[in-house]
Amino acid sequence: MRVSDGLKMGLQRASQPRAARSSAAKPAIPDKEQARLRDACQQFEAIFLAQLLQKMRETVPKDPLLGDSRAKDIYNSMLDWELAQQIARSQSVGIAETLYRQLSRVAAAESGGANKGGASAAERAVAPAADGPNEPALGAK
């Protein structure tokens, strides 16, 4: 295949809507688990965006006219959270969709194996690793 053919294929793929690209390879996990995984990914994106909005708001100079009150801080926090949820629902950033595609691949790959401890493949995909930084390495005493 020539480089120009590869570029054409890449441009054709990029011109497709994101939803069409993601629905092309449907993961082999049950619909209920897909919905739970998609919801968890969307919630993760909302939390990330809320933190981003909060940090952005901290860079804005304080307005001496309105003052600095606890009520204003609570209102701004609620506003940031609602904005983050709306942005995540609109799928304009794409963090949730990217995370969902990656985790659904992992869950689909694991769903073919043995079911560890009764946990579903999607639950195992988002569960923390047992040998994380605070846990001893496997086989260590």
What's a quick, concise take on this entry?
The chain has 141 residues and is mainly α. It is 65% helix and 0% strand. The longest helix has 28 residues, at 31-58.
In N-to-C order, the SSE pattern is HHHHHH
- Please report which band the strand proportion falls in: under 5%, 5-15%, 15-25%, 25-35%, 35-45% or over 45%: under 5%
Q: Give me the number of helical elements.
A: 6
> Could you give the count of β-strands?
0
Helix content: 55-70%
General shape: elongated
Determine the mean pLDDT. 74
Judged by helices, strands and strand pairing, the structural class is: mainly alpha
| Major sheet summary line | none
End-to-end Cα distance, whole Å, is: 53 Å
Uncertain spans: 135-141
- Output the radius of gyration: 21 Å
Oligomer: single chain
Structure description:
- The N and C termini lie far apart (about 55 Å).
- Helix content is about 65%, strand content about 0%.
- The protein has six helices and no strands.
- It has a domain at about 30-110.
- With about 140 residues, it is mainly α.
- It has helices spanning about 5-15, 20-25, 30-60, 70-90, 95-110, 120-125.
- The relative contact order is 0.13.
- The model is unreliable at about 135-140 (pLDDT under 50).
Keywords:
141 residues; mainly alpha; elongated; 6 helices; single chain; disordered C terminus
Show the helix and strand layout:
Elements: H1 3-15, H2 18-24, H3 31-58, H4 70-90, H5 95-111, H6 121-126
Helix pairs in contact: 3-4, 3-5
